[in-house]
Each structure stands twice: as structure tokens, then as C-alpha cells.
Amino acid sequence: MYLFKKISGLRQFLESYRSKNRAIGFVPTMGALHKGHLSLIEQSLASTQCTVGSIFVNPTQFNEAADLEKYPRAPAQDLAMLYKAGCHAVFMPSPEEVYPQGLDTSVALDFGALSKPMEGKFRPGHFDGVAQVVKRLLDIVEPDKLFMGQKDYQQYLIVRHMAQALSLPTEVVVCPIVREKNGLAMSSRNERLSPEQREQAAALYQTLQQVEKWMGKHPPREVEQKALQALQQPGLEPEYFQLVDGQALQPVSDYESPTSIVACAAIWVGGVRLIDNMILK
Ligand code: AMP
To answer: Which residues are tagged catalytic?
Structure first.
């Protein structure tokens, strides 16, 4: 496995694959890796000839300085995990390498309704930062396939929209959510939870499972209310719980007309914000 901190070295390495028409898969991450990240690496290894992982805690997607500062970092452990997984190359750039002075890396794209609800509403500016860093990393790596987790469902739709709107030559592949034994979606942020909080946080997945059963029996708004009530537990503070159309992210008003329906939620556990979702239809 090769580790690159500079764009020039990485591009030279990738050229040896590209010139032989070997497909390149890319898995961007913010590090503090877990089995969810590794599942993306595995998917890439299974369907491309060269897998590049990146570790970069992107400052432009954090809407709170304290959140950025507290974001878990474990570079040595991350590299060991990627090596063991069989990753071909890791890109670990500095902020200056990604955002050099004088280079306009902003993405002037209107994401319309996709960026307005849920994460867009509660984390203003977040998706502008996500689009900026993903576009910049795609420009650097130029992968054939980009692997993203369903865990960040809205982020996946935003990036897919960007790839389509800018006619990027990269296929965006979405990968299923990997969970802890108790159902809690794996997340780097879970590292900030105590063992007791991890158990409490499992209520989010249990509620998503409950919603699957309520669906069809109660109207969508009522299901959302019931879910929010179910999450009113000691140590938990729900932020939103929404049943949305799986393509446009608009609230669904019935269960028949949308072709896909996703339940999306964010909760606070102590000072840690967690998101999760479930594809219901
Ligand atoms: P992050 O490091 O949190 O920015 O995540 C990097 C990538 O891993 C994103 O595409 C996430 O959606 C994905 N990811 C994060 N957690 C999980 C999980 N539990 N299962 C599958 N993919 C995940």
C-alpha cells in the first residue's frame, strides 16, 4: 500500500493504472475508520483494479468549529486497517494541498430541494462543503467509481446529483449501512460515546425498525410523531425524524405514490450528533 500526501505523487501512481485501462475505485473518508468504511473499501476492491482511500477531515463541511476540533482522529490505526484490507493507495493530504491559496474550489451548483431539508436545515453550509471537497478529490483522483455509504443518504444524493449535473466520468456506487451488534449504525462519532450511551443510541435503529411496522397503518406525519415520541428517552434528544421520497427528499404524503421512501433521522446523544436512515420502500 502506498501513502501519498501530495497530489503529484498520487497522480503519477494512478497514471500507471490508467495507462493500462485498469479501473480505479475511490473511497473518501474523514478517518477514524470502522467496519463501515472497510465495507466500502471491500466493494471497491471487488469491482475495480485499484482502490484509493482518502483520509481528510474536511474543515469546510463543519458548520461548528468545536465539532471539527472534537472530530476523532486515529491516522496510525487507519493506515493499519487500510493496509490489512488490501487498499492499494491512501491519500492523506494537508488542508493546504486540498485548498491551495488562490485556487477557487467552490462548486457553483444549485442542489435545489435536495440540500434544503434535514442535514441541510440543521447544518447550514454543510453540503456546500461536502460538494466542494468531493469535487476537488474527484478532480485529483479521477476515479471510475466512487463508493459512498447509504448511512449518509442525503450526502449520497447530493454527490450523485453533482456527478450528473457536471457530467463527471465517475459512477457513484452506494453501499449498505454497517451496524454494531445492537443495531447502532457504525460512525466515527460513536467513539465519543460511553458504553452506556452506545446502548441508549441503539434506540434510533429500534425506532427505524418500529417505523417499518407502523408504515401503512398510520399516515406518514403520524408515524414521524410516534417516532419522535419513541426517541424521547433519557440521554437522547431527537432533532428530526422524516419520511421522505427517496429521490427528491420531499416529505411523503402517502405510501403508494412514491417509488421509494426513506426514513431519515438525527439525534443527539450527550454532545454527539448521530444520523441514521432506513429505506422503507
Ligand atoms: P466519513 O468518514 O464519516 O465521512 O464517511 C466516509 C464514507 O463512509 C461515507 O461515504 C459514509 O457514508 C460511509 N460510511 C460511514 N459510516 C458507514 C456505515 N456505518 N456503513 C457504511 N458506510 C458508512
So the answer is: 37
pLDDT (tens digit, 0 to 9) for every residue of the chain, 281 residues total? 999 999 999 999 999 999 999 999 999 999 999 999 999 999 999 999 999 999 999 999 999 999 999 999 999 999 999 999 999 999 999 999 999 999 999 999 999 999 999 999 999 999 999 999 999 999 999 999 999 999 999 999 999 999 999 999 999 999 999 999 999 999 999 999 999 999 999 999 999 999 999 998 999 999 999 999 999 999 999 999 999 999 999 999 999 999 999 999 999 999 999 999 999 99
Amino acid (one-letter) located at 115:
S
Q: Which residues line ligand 1 (CB under 6 A)?
A: 29-30, 36-37, 39-40, 148-149, 151-152, 175, 177-178, 185-188
Handedness of CA 179, 73, 63, 171 (dihedral sign): negative
Q: What distance in angstroms lies between residue 169's CA and the mean position of ligand 1's atoms? A: 22
- Give the chain's domain count: 2
CA of 195 to the centre of ligand 1 (A): 21
Q: Are residues 168 and 200 in the same domain?
A: no
- What range does the domain containing 7 cover? 2-175
Judge if 113 and 34 occupy the same domain. yes
Looking at the CA of residue 149, tell me the nearest atom of ligand 1: 12
